[in-house]
């Protein structure tokens, strides 16, 4: 997994001053959040549904080996193939082998975060195979040669006029003066361009939202219908997915789907929910001749045996991302991982490494809103803190922080020393604050004062000092 | 109590005694250092509500700086120290004018000290007895005797730990509803984090600045002339941004208003002669 999170702080600086990004993120807050709130309010049993969904995933994860083998067995029985991939390279190789075996030159792709995780497009291009993204958002960022900035709205950072610019630059077949101001114009143009690709593709690649063990089916949900065209029209359908997506039964899948759309976009169901079970049967009107499932591990089985196991319940709805105030301030690209936001800051260190994920687990106020909206009740703040503990134990935390805590800790367990320190600090701050009652710059606090003033304590000393004095007065009065 | 022997470090100092519940006040390190009047406001409210309040002398800080920085060993040592310092066995309740510190003790002390045979039980006792101030007054005491007056339009910022960790939402609003002359206007996003986050605000000043900038925008847009909240960290952050921008909107801890002490001290980040800007 390619991660550039080491540049997080630099990325953030660019992100917080980008006016286009700010506009886009404002739309996200009013859209996704309000829609989810409405959908949840309309379903009295939503909390019970969350419990049911969590129980399903917990059960599946507790018996993951069993359900994965059962899934494989059913896929094979339906005439398909399953390829187990330990990491991204193995997964890409499996896909390339299938493409080569069918002499594929053009591959259409439905939206897949696992394909992003393993950088499948780069692998295909390097092998001389042209990948064509068919989800509108993915198509836009493919033209712009960018990574997704959001797991369900990959091009959420792109403004409408920027999409028009990209279309004019890439779609040279159309008149240069055509109108592209309205979303409808953009959509229609993308549709015309993609229609040809759907028909000419040799292989269609999709992800999967869920895998069903009892039937060997894979499920995708989309709102554009592009997934269906991707997987039904070419001769070969490859599902690129990961091991934690398996649930035991169709019934279980239905429960999870009810949570997914509501939590993600506030819809009751996505516009299209498509199940694939093996290749086309003789009496099927359409469908691929070959059906492959590539099952990626890439660190997930390691998570299964760790304190990060609960994060494997994630159904990639993005509710945590949509409600994260940090994501809302910086957008997705700053994270340097295809999985941004709270869930990204938890799984990126697990899928790549803590060193590569650098400061991600620290980039949170632990405000708890992610956990509050997670349909799978993943304790994201607890896990962010767990990563910080790993960081601290492995001496990845800056020396400044370590020494600061050591000194603080010495004083915090010695009340007399602590009182002396806070008394001196209070007086110093009060003196520096002067008649304005605040500091525009403070020694050793420039990270605070760079963006806001530091309020000074009012005259009179610390609470503990004043309280003691007051007690003395009360006593002598009696 | 007429003798003036120096008080033992771990002993508690008692305010005017009453027959009501015995409450130990957890002052919190930020109130102690940055906003002592909040401690006195909490004292007054608790005494008005009929409590006998003590202020345990040895208390310092709940340990969140270490806990949220991943230094679990130091956080555990601090938790052990505070369990001793607060000596919850001697009182009925421990009350803090902070959702954040109260949540630290309620939600995390028992886990931090779970493997410490001598302290696990005491940590659970302390956790069960610890409450955030407004939720203690409303939920535990069912007290509605607010005797305060303030001609102002206030807005209320829900602080994250109190709101999501302890369910503090209606309690401060109910109490504010009893303050004569005060009207409350809601923010458009009262539950959005202000960007303080403990050490987060200095580790990531750019992100924190953007977040508190948005919060300040929301406060100003509400039309209120006073923003209130229940945690000093958030209030220092919000006041700091409002003052940096030269805004005339004042920031105060909710306890100051509820205790009728809002006019005794300049607002947070304002001096005796503090002109807006």
How does this structure look, described?
The complex is a heterodimer of chains A (478) and B (277). Chain A has 478 residues and is an alpha/beta fold. Chain A folds into two domains: 5-302, Rossmann fold, CATH 3.40.50.10420; 411-477, no CATH class. Chain A is built from 23 helices and twelve strands. In chain A, strands 1-10-7-4-2-3 form a six-stranded parallel β-sheet, with helices on both faces. Chain A has helices at residues 8-16, 19-41, 46-62, 64-77, 88-101, 113-117, 120-126, 136-143, 160-170, 183-200, 226-232, 250-264, 300-304, 319-323, 325-330, 341-351, 354-357, 369-373, 380-393, 399-412, 415-433, 446-449, 463-477; strands spanning 81-85, 106-109, 130-133, 203-206, 210-212, 217-222, 236-242, 246-247, 272-276, 290-296, 438-439, 454-455. The longest helix of chain A is centred in the first third of the chain and has 23 residues, at 19-41. With 277 residues, chain B is of the alpha/beta class. Chain B has two domains: 12-139, Glutathione S-transferase Yfyf (Class Pi), Chain A, domain 2, CATH 1.20.1050; 143-258, Rossmann fold (3-Layer(aba) Sandwich), CATH 3.40.50. Chain B is 44% helix and 14% strand. In chain B, the strands form two sheets. Chain B has a five-stranded mixed β-sheet, with helices on both faces. Chain B has a four-stranded parallel β-sheet with strand order 7-6-8-9. In chain B, helix 5 (99-112) packs antiparallel against helix 6, helix 5 (99-112) crosses helix 8 and helix 11 crosses helix 12 (232-244). The radius of gyration of chain B is 18 Å and the shape is globular. The model of chain B is unreliable at 1-11 (pLDDT under 50).
